[in-house]
Amino acid sequence: MNDLIIAPSILAADLARLGDEVDQVIRAGADWVHFDVMDNHYVPNLSFGPVVCQALRRHGIKAPIDVHLMVSPVDRIIPDFAAAGADLISFHPEASAHVDRSLQLIRDQGCQTGLVFNPATPLDALRYVIDKVDLILLMSVNPGFGGQQFLPVTLEKLREARALIDAQSRPIRLEVDGGVGPDNIEAVVAAGADTVVAGSAIFGQPDYAAVIDTLRQRAARAAS
Ligand SMILES: O=C(CO)[C@H](O)[C@H](O)COP(=O)(O)O
Ligand SMILES: [Fe+2]
Predict the structure, then answer these.
(1) Is 36 a catalytic residue?
(2) What would the DSSP string read from start to end of 35-100?
(3) CA 23/CA 61 separation, integer angstroms
(4) What whole-number percentage of the chain has pLDDT above 90?
(5) 178 is in an annotated binding site
(6) Is 31 a catalytic residue?
(7) 118-127: pLDDT as tens digits
(8) Where do the domains of the chain lie?
(9) Residue 46 pairs with which residues in a beta bridge?
(10) Is there an atom of ligand 1 within 6 Å of 144 CB?
(11) CA dist., res. 198 & res. 180, Å (int)
């Protein structure tokens, strides 16, 4: 298995102290910053945009920023996130009129690409564009809110995505997002995830290092 990447979703952080929260969670052992962008159109909630991403960079955050766009349309905002310091930009295929063009746009801006699949969305959109995809993100809740219950059907879909990735000749990361924590990380890693988003499971605890250690220990059980 690839090294496990833990990407805390800052949606669940104390947003009044965002820079310090991100510093603290990276010092506690997290790998990436998962940055949820919601537009009150594609999803029924509103979060934050490129100025907040840029503010994290100006604050001195060096960790990769994993931008999860829950916006429609997607193309207009991609260059703004690239300029704001995003490393990876993922979008939902149904939110883009031209998926191949949006993937190319992300690459042209020097970022890595991701495609995101809602719980009820099949993986079909990957069929003709997988050579332009660096990460597949499977939603294990319906997008729009943190703190929801993990949908177990995701495990079957992770296995399907893992088989698809293993048939490729280049590396693609497999990320899972929504309701993941110490109780189910072993199952998602056993099903093929190598990148795990956790929002409320991490920021909802007083000791970030302790919960990240627990996540890694439980994930390691899947490999043994
Ligand atoms: O994309 C998201 C919601 O649309 C979030 O990344 C996700 O909900 C993470 O939060 P939690 O771990 O609390 O479920
Ligand atoms: Fe997300």
Answers:
(1) yes
(2) EEEEBSSSSS-B---HHHHHHHHHHT--S-EEEEEE-SS-GGGHHHHHHHT-SEEEE-GGG-S-HH
(3) 7
(4) 98
(5) yes
(6) no
(7) 999 999 999 9
(8) 5-223
(9) 39
(10) yes
(11) 6
ipTM, two decimals, is 0.98
* Ligand 1 centroid from CA 176, angstroms: 10
> Against a cut of 0.90, is the pTM above it?
yes
Cβ–ligand 1 contact at 181 (below 6 Å): no
Q: Which residues contact 106 (CB under 8 A, 6 or more apart)?
A: 78, 82, 89, 112, 113
Q: Please, which residues have CB within 8 angstroms of residue 134's CB and are 6 or more apart in sequence?
A: 88, 112, 113, 114, 172, 173
Q: Is residue 224 a known part of a binding site?
A: no
Ligand 2 center from residue 24 Cα (angstroms): 20
Q: Domain 5-223: which topology?
A: TIM Barrel (3.20.20)
What whole-number distance in Å separates Cα of residue 94 and Cα of residue 121? 9
Answer for the pair 175, 137: CB distance below 8 angstroms, yes or no. yes
Q: Residue written as tokens 């429609």?
A: 72
- Nearest bound ligand to CA 9? 1
141 Cα nearest atom in ligand 1: 8
223 has a pLDDT exceeding 90: no
Nearest-CA residue for atom 4 of ligand 1: 143
Q: What is the total residue count of the chain?
A: 224
Which runs of consecutive H residues, i.e. helices, occur in the chain? 18-27, 50-59, 78-84, 99-108, 154-166, 185-190, 200-203, 208-223
